[in-house]
């Protein structure tokens, strides 16, 4: 642990090394005025950029007076003891790993996979390996021409860890540029289409509707997204496909189809929660509806507990092939865990 200095400077010795991570302890100078945590730390730890410190704060790596703070704009006062834990650096190049993949289509330009729930798409904080990228590096060994000069798959869109379904990745710079442009356009001028199926609590009042509400990071919880004025444009179209009743015979849940016109983080989950119909099993945006499970039959409840994730599946993916221009269309059936819950809700 770096030594505490009353003048607010970092001690000369940091515990550990780059391979083990480092920890720093600083005391806010007595003559300092109240200021944002990220700005204060940027002055006390000049070896780190402010954006890096903000990321560490949001990741729960910073404490003030022993209390973990996850909001960069948290106000700190003179005399406060602040501890910063810096994780060891991650490898700049993900390593190939033999992880089974469900390959729907593959050629020299791209690969389409049906992602299972529980698989993270890209290495990052907390998930340095065992991701889809690691799996693709192993599966596509020798067939990647390189993205930006590095042998790696080109990820042009993502699915949340616990969302299952179709995802395309590029295998060359040419394919990566074309697919990136299509996803950035969101199908407004091309054939791109992304369709999802979701089980939601309750029955939306309209069979078909569009949710056009801006999305930004939540002010209350930076780990979540929220509908917020001034956020980025977000448009979700939905259609109610089926409705289901609970143990008392009253409408309890619905199966809906969603189509994205934009691609914001957690967009479908945020939008459906915003209109009062969060996705069944969503631990982040649907936690307030967990009591609804008491209205399920025993069989329905058991299948929901077995699901253990948000009931969201990317079932449709349409795009123009980056080389031939041919319209490529792929559909994916509901995975076994989601189908079992649908069957239970249907009484079959």
The tally of beta strands, per DSSP, is 18
How are helices and strands ordered from N to C? EEHHEEEEEEHEEHEEEEEEHHEEH
Sketch the major β-sheet.
Answer: 10 strands, mixed
Considering DSSP H and I runs of 4 or more, what fraction of the residues is helical?
10-25%
Tally of alpha and pi helices: 7
Query: What percentage of amino acids are in beta strands?
Result: 25-35%
What is the correct CATH architecture of the largest domain?
2-Layer Sandwich
Radius of gyration: 23 Å
CATH superfamily of the largest domain: Pseudouridine synthase
CATH topology of the largest domain: Pseudouridine synthase
What's the level 1 CATH class of the largest domain?
Answer: Alpha Beta
Mean model confidence by pLDDT: 88
- The chain-level structural class is alpha+beta
Distance from N terminus to C terminus (CA atoms, Å) equals: 60 Å
| Poorly predicted parts | 1-20
List the helices and strands and how they pair.
Blueprint: E1 22-27, E2 35-36, H1 37-44, H2 50-58, E3 62-64, E4 67-68, E5 75-76, E6 81-86, E7 103-106, E8 110-115, H3 132-139, E9 154-155, E10 164-170, H4 173-185, E11 193-201, E12 208-212, E13 215-217, E14 225-227, E15 235-245, E16 251-260, H5 267-274, H6 298-307, E17 312-320, E18 327-331, H7 336-346
Parallel strand pairs: 10-17
Antiparallel strand pairs: 1-6, 2-5, 3-4, 3-6, 7-8, 8-10, 9-10, 11-16, 11-17, 12-15, 13-14, 15-16, 17-18
Helix pairs in contact: 1-2, 6-7
